Amino acid sequence: MAGATGPKRQDTRKFFENLSGAGKCIAVLTSGGDAQGMNGAVRAVVRMGIYVGAKVYFIHEGYQGMVDGGDYIKEATWESVSSVLQVGGTVIGSARCKEFRSHEGRLKAAHNLVQRGITYLCVIGGDGSLTGANLFREEWSGLLNELIEQGLIDEEAARSHSQLHIVGMVGSIDNDFCGTDMTIGTDSALHRIIEVVDAIMTTAQSHQRTFVLEVMGRHCGYLALVSALACGADWVFIPEMPPEDGWEDNMCQKLSESRSRGSRLNIIIVAEGATDRQGQHITSDLVKKLVVSHLGFDTRVTILGHVQRGGTPSAFDRILASRMGVEAVLALLEASTDTPACVVSLVGNQAVRLPLMECVQMTQEVQKAMDEKKFDEAVRLRGRSFENNLSTYRLLASQTARSDLQNSSFNVAVMNVGAPAAGMNAAVRSAVRVGITEGHKMFAVNDGFEGFYKGQIKEIKWGDVGGWTGQGGSLLGTKRTLPAKHLDEIAEQMRIHNITALLVIGGFEAFESLLELYEARANYKEFCIPMCILPATISNNVPGTDHSLGADTSLNAIVETCDRIKQSASGTKRRVFIIETMGGYCGYLATVGGLAAGADTVYIYEEPFDIRDLQANVEHLTQKMKTSIQRGLVLRNENCNENFTTDFIYQLYSEEGRGVFDCRKNILGHMQQGGAPSPFDRNFGTKVAAKAIQWITQTLKESYKEGRVFTNSEDTACLLGMRRRAMVFQPVAQLREETDFVHRIPKEQWWLKLRPLMKILAKYKTSYDVSDAGQLEHVTRVRPKENDASAAI
After folding, report:
1. Is residue 448 within 8 Å of 477, Cβ to Cβ?
2. Facing residues of 565 across strands?
3. Which of 45, 94, 112, 341 would disulfide-bridge 69, Cβ 3.0–4.6 Å?
4. What residues does beta-D-fructose 2,6-bisphosphate bind to (predicted)?
5. pLDDT tens-digit profile of 424-448?
């Protein structure tokens, strides 16, 4: 099973203590268009570089700074990247540089690097910036020879700098780079778009308007496609898949059908590079004129422009940038003369290293396919994440039942169980609409299993779930009640409504519920039907999945609050904040929130601590207060220790830090559970629910015999989870072994590997297992169909 973690392999693990940066000089630069999260990557490179004993330099203003030298190339310190994690754009500046494109420019740049002993280069930018870096590397020995000839360096300098090692990270809001699921900045740009769409929807609703939104993406429709999925847009135009001829009438018909079903607004999203099949530009104004002339609807255009590049980075981008930055330093330290320049990237939930030029060539092939009007090929080359988004969008846009499944006579029930989590409604909407498209009759169960046994079940139609994607909480209603005590009544309700499949969207209680129903199959034939659970809980504590629906929204809420708290602390100086997060016994929110917010220490149940650790942490903060960063941030998971409570830690820190720093405490509480879902959760919910319904359809076909549905095999009661790179259906019966039921957490949790990373970035000495670090792979390999990790939204 992809990504299932087995027992710890002590003998094969290697630790990066063996990788020393002593005597090495690393330079970091940002180039091309800016993207939110670049600062997180710069911070991680600087701190990891210093941590391993290397000298790290900033190159200001991208390649221009490398060519100009002088004060543009400055040594970085630990403190110089303090407080940049929450800042958008790039603090070291970025510029497009014509001079670097010339041989003379690159010769100057080489001279400037050799003067400072720099032979390791980390470039954060788009494909143009990375291609430039690769060319520079290929020319390096030739450039050194020229410098010797010109008398600018001696033979010894050339010998000691004979190799230039390069690692790239892709910073681009367009997500237009092949080989990676998500580029730094994409998720934040989606946040900006969705904030605007949510705001526009309320005014559009009031006036029954149609809004045409133009988003960035000259050559790549990712932002347009994903924001269309995340807000349930009526129509989307993207460069990779121009609309069929006659689209004008089709679009107007779709808009007017939507209005006749009671919708008060229409949203149309246009990527700035959208064209028709003939290559003619489709502009937002053209679309507006069409709607007005054909339908007479009150229509407005909003062009988002550079708003999408701005603002603070999302939690996802901060974590992605921090992970990639550390990975980049490891890749540089491990580089040898025969390793190609590589890009560090994310596939699913796993860091990978890919040859830079393979990625660039594939990215260029997409453009070539589009120029040659081979649009299906362009979509395929974009990668599985893009393909998946497009197929899900089409599935939800079709609105007519497939002819081969017309009136399948299957009744599929959808319900929420456990605490509310953002994204639940997006998943319900997607399940209902895909189910109807697949020919099923869809039923909604209100208030979890409590509503189920009381008979709160009714048919739910296409129009009933309109506008649900952006709603927080659970519109169906949800309860923590488990089914075990009400099996007779639940079976009775299943008979009355002839329920032939069940989709449960919820947290740990949903997992326990499905186990109880599975175990009751021997006594109740009503439960011998396909059953599937989609993990949805802010705690991310469900076994069988790396990500649960709702956790991303919650992380963003935590990070936003921590940003504000840090800001207040930087004004008062010498202040330490102790913040309590939710999560039950699962330390995911505290750990990953701590990594994204730049916390000094995070206390969790999974990593036991004692009074000596608390003392060491206070001492660490005391030392920190002697530097220019005079504030501290400590996160504590609510159940990390029954005796070391938030109050206890607050009092201990206050007493031990007396005269050095003062303390404040903050319990975040239920604000972590509310709010509008993040783009990630809207999209993830939409895609996993569509996948689950397709699995249910397939399983129903296989288990329909002699006029009824009957299946009691363990692989028909499944949990759909994301494991490293793959979306996997796993029998709940098998997941029982992987679960600690007392503390309601999985026995193995992938994110614990992020803890050393968080400690390193907070200046703690720690052991970091790099056996899971990215290995150099090749981008040309087409991944098997199941291995699509839709983690990358």
Report:
1. yes
2. none
3. 112
4. 480, 537-541, 575, 582-584, 638, 664, 670-673, 744
5. 999 999 999 999 999 999 999 999 9
Supply the DSSP string of 652-665, one letter for each residue: HHHHHTTTT-EEEE
Instruction: For residues 260 and 477, give the distance between their C-alpha atoms in angstroms, rounded to a whole number.
Output: 28
574 is an annotated ligand-binding site residue: no
Q: pLDDT digit string (tens) for 228-273? A: 999 989 999 999 999 999 999 999 999 998 888 888 889 999 999 9
Q: What is the distance between the alpha carbons of residues 475 and 482, in angstroms, rounded to a whole number?
A: 19
541 assigned to a ligand binding site: yes
Exposure string of 707-719, with b = 16+ CB inside 10 Å and e = fewer, is eebebeeeebbbb
Closest CA to 94 of 59, 61, 130: 61
Cα 701 from Cα 709, distance rounded (Å)? 8
List the beta bridge partners of residue 579. 635, 666
Annotation-wise, does 172 bind a ligand?
yes
Reduced to 3 states (helix: H, G, I; strand: E, B; else coil), residue 502 is: strand
Q: Are 589 and 539 in contact (CB under 8 A)?
A: yes
What is the pairing mode between strands 299-303 and 120-125? unpaired
Looking at residue 541, its amino acid is N
538 secondary structure, DSSP code? T
pTM of the model: 0.93
SS3 of residue 506 by DSSP: strand
Measure the CA–CA gap between 779 and 439, rounded to whole angstroms.
Answer: 38
Tokens of 36: 């939110």
Distance CA 581, CA 526 (A): 40
- The CA-atom distances, in angstroms, between 731 and each of 529, 533, 637 are 13, 10, 30
The response to whether 305 counts as a known ligand-binding position is no
Reduced to 3 states, what is the DSSP secondary structure of residue 423?
coil
| Consecutive H or E run containing 539 | none
- Tens of pLDDT along 404-423? 445 567 999 999 999 999 99
Site of tokens 């395929």: 380
The tokens of 326 are what? 């550390």
The CB-side HSE value for 138 (13 A sphere, CA atoms) comes to 10
Q: How many CB atoms lie within 10 A of CB 760?
A: 21
* Residue 300 annotated in ligand binding: yes
Cα–Cα distance, 363 to 352 (Å, whole number): 17
For the chain, give the mean pLDDT.
90
Q: Which amino acid is at 165?
A: H
Ligand-binding site membership of 540 (annotated): yes
How far is Cα 431 from Cα 270, in angstroms, rounded to an integer? 26
Q: How far apart are CA 641 and CA 628, in angstroms?
A: 32
Task: Give the Cα separation of 642 and 636 in Å (integer).
Answer: 12
> What does the angle CA 575 – CA 576 – CA 582 come to, to the nearest 5 degrees?
145
pLDDT at 605 over 90: yes
End-to-end, the C-alpha distance of the chain in Å comes to 22
The string of DSSP letters for 137-175 reads HHHHHHHHHHHHHTTSS-HHHHHHT---EEEEEEB-TT-
Q: Which of 34, 174, 546, 681 is catalytic?
A: 174
DSSP letter, residue 702:
H
Told to judge if 174 belongs to the known catalytic residues of this protein, a careful annotator would answer yes
Report the C-alpha gap between 697 and 792 in whole angstroms. Answer: 25
CA angle 190, 86, 83 (to 5 degrees): 165
Residue 708 annotated as part of some ligand binding site = no
Give CA–CA dist 700/520, Å, rounded: 20
Residue 664 counted as an annotated binding residue? yes
- The annotation status of 173 as a binding-site residue, yes or no, is yes
The SS3 call for residue 322 is: helix
Domains and CATH numbers, the chain: 18-183+313-367 (3.40.50.450), 186-308 (3.40.50.460), 411-549+677-762 (3.40.50.450), 551-673 (3.40.50.460)
Contact of 530 with 699, CB cutoff 8 Å: yes
